């Protein structure tokens, strides 16, 4: 089977990470990065999106509910464009995420990955591991003992 790799997989991964990152963590990590000059293509805007779901991941799609998001698009002085959609109503978070997206498309990508994305990914992985451990601690194994009914 000839499966072509997604050429945008890396960008999808970092944009997902930035969207899920706690705003305080992103702000702390961004504090050590020299911000470039930029102009807004779309200043941060707060809006809503409809979240859809599927029962068992195979059923018919249904509207689960609405979620608040903030989006932003900007252009660096060098012409590189960055976009962001983040959960909630935090405009600063959206601007930082869009700046990081744009910088990841420049020659500063390795520095940004090292300073911001890698620590965010490690924190997210640690959080998932803690949640999984907490859930595993509450796991109950049920078993059935076959009885002979004479």
Topology overview:
Elements: H1 9-20, H2 23-30, E1 38-54, E2 61-76, E3 81-87, H3 91-103, H4 109-137
Antiparallel strand pairs: 1-2, 2-3
SSE sequence, one letter per element: HHEEEHH
Helix percentage: 40-55%
How many strand elements?
A: 3
Terminal CA distance reads 56 Å
Characterise the protein shown here.
- The protein is an alpha+beta fold.
- It has one domain (10-127).
- The protein contains four helices and three strands, in the order H-H-E-E-E-H-H.
- The chain has helices at residues 9-20, 23-30, 91-103, 109-137; strands at 38-54, 61-76, 81-87.
- Strands 1-2-3 form a three-stranded antiparallel sheet.
- Helix 1 (9-20) runs antiparallel to helix 3, helix 2 (23-30) crosses helix 3 and helix 2 (23-30) packs antiparallel against helix 4.
- The longest helix has 29 residues, at 109-137.
Question: What's this, in brief?
Answer:
This protein is α+β, with helices and mostly antiparallel strands and 150 residues long.
């Amino acid at each position: 089977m000839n499966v072509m790799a997604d050429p945008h997989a890396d960008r999808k991964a970092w944009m997902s990470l930035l969207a899920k990152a706690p705003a305080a963590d992103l702000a702390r990590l961004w504090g050590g990065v020299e911000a470039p000059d930029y102009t807004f293509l779309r200043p941060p805007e707060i809006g809503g999106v409809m979240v859809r779901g599927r029962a068992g991941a195979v059923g018919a799609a249904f509207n689960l509910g609405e979620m608040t998001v903030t989006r932003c698009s900007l252009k660096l002085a060098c012409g590189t464009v960055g976009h962001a959609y983040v959960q909630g109503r935090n405009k600063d978070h959206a601007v930082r995420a869009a700046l990081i997206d744009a910088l990841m498309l420049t020659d500063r990508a390795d520095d940004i990955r090292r300073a911001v994305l890698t620590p965010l990914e490690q924190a997210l992985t640690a959080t998932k591991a803690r949640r999984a451990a907490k859930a595993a601690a509450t796991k109950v194994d049920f078993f059935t003992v076959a009885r002979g009914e004479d």
